[in-house]
Specification:
227 residues; 2 domains; 4-stranded antiparallel β-sheet; single chain; Aspartate Aminotransferase, domain 1; 11 strands; alpha+beta
Amino acid sequence: MLLKRFERYVPRIAKLIGYGFIERGGELVYETQMLDGQFTFSMTVGEGGRLSERVIDNFTLEDYVLHRGEGSVGTFVGIVRAEVEKILDDILSCCFERDVFKEKLTRELIDRTRRSFGEKLEFLWEKYPEFAVFRHFKSKKWYMVVMRISQRKLGIDKDGTIEVVNLNVGLGKAADHVDRVRFFPAYHMTKKNWVTARIDAFSSVDELFGYVEASRELAGKQKNKRG
């Protein structure tokens, strides 16, 4: 149950290594002391993102497992469990990201944006786990919203979901881009300057990334206005 918090998240290998995970037998392993050296906490990220955790009693050198059981009670067990949860939450926050977007081009676009600008994909709404944003690090304004939505939200008469991005193309210029093939009127955004781009309508990340750069440039100028 402790590792349930990692469901729908994927590890970022570079961040794991930066955090202190080391390669050991084809796996990445992190160890730290807890509760004034009474225990050693260990977490392993294996092939395919398989996760495991251990708490070892440094006196007996045996695995301490009481912290895993929901039926385990007692003040000390609660202290150990709370410490393990604190460590796991920190690893999750620092080294993992939500595994929401499945399309190859979507993943490439997210990676390209992250590497180009050093900004992270933010999941802001628990109610909408399939919506995320990139924002300009100076102005704090959004320049791309990445979403998985129903095709019917865009007026497409088909069932199923698609992955899209909302992009700013300039005040009053959105209508010039809307063709209802690649670009649609913005979903949940101002339709005068934002459009929704259907990611699978583009042949390459290069073709779409130019629009991301332009949207980000506009976001950088919006210091006193809402994006």
